[in-house]
Structure formats: structure tokens, C-alpha cells
Amino acid sequence: MKINSAEFVISNSDVAKCPNTPLPEYAFIGRSNVGKSSLINMLMERKNLAKTSGKPGKTQLINHFLINKNWHLVDLPGYGYARVSKKDKKTFQKYITDYFLQREQLVMGFVLVDCRHEPQSIDLEFMQWLGEQQLPFGIIFTKADKLKPNALKRNVAHYQEVLLETWESMPPYFITSSSKGYGREQLLDYIDAVNTDLEH
Fold this sequence. Notes:
This protein is an alpha/beta fold. The chain has helices at about 35-45, 85-100, 120-130, 150-165, 185-200; strands at about 5-10, 25-30, 60-65, 70-75, 105-115, 135-140, 175.
């Protein structure tokens, strides 16, 4: 898929105010500091489409971007903030869950995980919740350039082992690096193929 246009549409904390269009949506979510904004900017080949920050928890709203005039990329708040009060955390969680449960245009969620770390319980719990709600999702391993090839392979294989303890099969997954551009074509081609299927 070639990205011809990528434009910011709206930010809000209320699912009812999300764009009222039939366009398919792909939601990107992950723990704070997993590299979500950098990944979105890399996918779209835009420097500052999604705001990056050294401080975790920068995205605190549901952000819609219109891509190629025919689908929405949705940048969701991270779960598990380091620097936000419990009250705020609950608010984020509520509109994250509201979005996933109520948004009919949602085609798929992408859960971002840092490939350098062991599987984190908060990520596994969120995937489990998506599965229980029968919401399709894929996994995006970020920061692949930070590991040597063998270590990367080992970590991804370990993640698969852990997931297959509770899942019958592995969800689609992608290995990416925002700084090197790894995984960009595979991920965009996957979205393109799903969009094409939806049209038929």
C-alpha cells in the first residue's frame, strides 16, 4: 500500500463523537513508551503526524487519522501509565474499552509490544480481554533494531510459546523498527488486503 495522504481528523475522549463514517478503522494501542507514535509516523512516512514524547502517556485521547481517504488509523491511549493518577487511569481505561466494545467501524486492533522484554502481564491480559470480546487483533513487535537477529528470534519465539499456552493459534504478528523502517510494507500490505476483502 502506498500512502498518498494521511491527515489528522479529530481527538476526543467520547466514542460517540468519533467520525460518523462507514470507513474501516485500525486501532493501535500498547503500554506507555512502547514506541507507538514513532511507529505511526514511520508507517505514514510523516515526521509529526502522531506526537512523540520522551514522557510516557502522551496520547490521552482517541485520535483519528484519515489515510488515503479510505480508512482510519486510530491512535489510542496507552494502558499502564507511569505518571497518571489512578482516577485518570480509570478514565482512560473506560474510553479504551468503550471504543473497542462500541465502535462498529473497528476492523482490527494492533497491540504493540516491545520485543526486548519478556511478555508483560498487562499486555497478555489486554489480549485476553480482546479475545473474550471476540475482537480481532494483531501483535506488533516494536524496536526490533535494538536486538541482534538471534535474540530477536528467541524473544519472538518465547512470546509465541507463552501465547499458545492459552490461545489455539498465534494472532497475526509483525516485527517492526521505526528507526529502520522494518515491517512497514508487511503491515501496510496486510491492512490493504483486509480492506480489499471488506470491499468484496
